[in-house]
Write a structure and sequence with these properties.
The protein is an alpha/beta fold. It is built from 12 helices and 9 strands. It has a domain at 4-209: Alpha-Beta Complex (Spore Coat Polysaccharide Biosynthesis Protein SpsA, Chain A), CATH 3.90.550. The two termini are 34 Å apart.
Length: 323
């Protein structure tokens, strides 16, 4: 029996799945098993994952969403620890080693998670991280209930017992217009015990919307009623702060990409980033102002940026599992 079970849910991930699997297989912690769950892909995802046999076990299911795929993978594995790695993210070689060591040293903790670098959809690292100032610690339950916390699925390792006790990933949330399976899961898991935060860049989280669109744009046309009802029934709190943060995060990432490209003189990339921000949030005036800035002379762009053209660091967390 392996000590750590790695579950990789994959849906139409042919562009990234090979690198993701390779990063799992290159871990310095060797007592592991890897399962890839093909969630009804219509591209070459299954074929690419199958080529890693016997080091990777492939299971298939009709398209049911990431929560169902993660739960399916957990059911066929046996490790004391579970690590869910999204099919477009990467691990540094010591990711599992550091998280397992932290959990072994803290028996009361249910989960260990690390910081991560942010990359664009083509894998280019953007020079920013998930956990900025104010979020670089393990959250209390109250913090998880009041704001979006930068714990991505691919940055965490958890105890199987805690996963099973809280009921796994909620498949009920699949129909919500936002992806809230991760936030809901962290809240329920935190109720089982404290988390551990490792202030180390041990993963790479891919922003899968730009420049190539690897996933669907988020749908903000409906309220996430299921998630809202769940928080009110269980904890008596509103989901509104978390919803606002989830809506803000994609446009914030695109703004950072666009402003960085603009200062570097890459108007085409900047314009494309700001245009996508407009598509995601067409009612935000600042998105249009930034897009118009790409048509100004460079000297004006630098002056408008302020502070010699340096970017203002946005330490707010990015959203988990943007689809």
């Amino acid at each position: 029996m392996a000590r750590v079970s790695i579950i990789i849910p994959a849906y139409n991930a042919e562009a990234t799945i090979a690198a993701t699997i390779e990063s799992a297989l290159k871990q310095s912690h060797r007592d592991l098993e890897v399962v890839c769950v093909d969630d009804g892909s219509s591209d070459r995802t299954r074929e690419i994952a199958a080529a890693f046999a016997p080091r990777v076990r492939l299971i298939e299911q009709p398209n049911s969403g990431p929560a169902a795929a993660r739960n399916a993978g957990a059911r066929v594995t046996s490790g004391d620890y579970l690590a869910f790695l999204d099919a477009d993210d990467l691990w540094e070689p010591r990711m599992l080693e550091r998280c397992v060591t932290a959990l072994d040293s803290n028996p009361s903790a249910t989960l260990a998670f690390c910081n991560a670098e942010i990359a664009d959809s083509e894998g280019a690292r953007l020079g920013s991280v998930l956990a900025g100032r104010g979020f670089d610690h393990a959250p209390s339950l109250a913090e998880l209930l009041s704001q979006m916390w930068p714990i991505m699925v691919s940055t965490a390792v958890m105890r199987r017992g805690a996963y099973e006790k809280c009921g796994g990933w909620s498949e009920e949330l699949r129909g919500a217009s936002f992806r809230f399976e991760d936030t809901d899961f962290w809240i329920r898991l935190r109720g089982q015990g404290p988390f551990i935060y490792l202030n180390e860049l041990l993963a790479v989280w891919r922003f899968a919307l730009f420049p190539a669109q690897l996933k669907k744009l988020p749908d903000y046309s409906k309220a996430p009623h299921v998630f809202e009802r769940s928080l009110k029934e269980r904890y008596g709190v509103s989901a509104e702060p978390i919803v606002r943060a989830r809506m803000r995060a994609p446009r914030s990432i695109l703004a950072n990409i666009g402003l960085k490209a603009l200062r570097a003189g890459d108007r085409t990339r900047a314009r494309a980033a700001f245009a996508l921000a407009i598509r995601i949030d067409p009612y935000r005036l600042k998105n249009y102002m930034r897009w118009l800035r790409t048509f100004l002379p460079r000297i004006l762009v630098i002056r408008l940026s302020g502070a010699g053209g340096r970017a203002t660091h946005d330490s707010r967390p990015a959203p988990g599992g943007i689809e």
